Here is the input.
Amino acid sequence: MGAQPAQHGGIDAVQLLTTDHERIEQLFRRFEGLPVDATDERQSVVREFTQGLSRHASAEEQIFYPAVRDALPDGDSLVDESLDDHHEIKELLVAIDDASPSDGRLDDLVQSLIAEVREHVEEEEGEILPRLSQAVGHERMVEIGERLEKAEALAPTRAHPHAPDTPPGNLVAGPAAAVVDRLRDAIDDG
Here is the structure.
């Protein structure tokens, strides 16, 4: 889900993360616009945003949040709150994955997910990203962006709410989960 390179060479973390957020929002709007009986298309959209959110969250937890902790005086509390949001989002993704398309609670679960993600994005884009960018400068934000892009490419494609979400645990568990997820994805596609 990476972004386009920034003008000064490299991928700026702000640009990468906001592009990810925009893509997820587009998928949410697509889901919201689908009729309830468009089961196959709804499942396809759910799968897309599940994969996108899972990769995005994993990369943030490995790369972005440690940078926030290091750079901002209140970084620990900001990251702890964001990790709580991620945990809720992951729990909802698992519940959505477990719900059958004909399950009446699927729409409620997706609407809860959408509300949670939108609130999280607003906090991240409105507070954390601008403050981190100001604290570390453009060059460091490009370095973080490039690392985020690499982490997303190797990240799990499904939610793992009980896996570690901070280094060093997530640096080991994430790639292992990604291998299993990609096998499950191949089986599901086959």
Notes: Confidence is low (pLDDT under 50) at residues 1-8. The first helix runs from residue 13 to 33. The helical segments are 13-33, 39-71, 75-98, 106-154, 169-189.
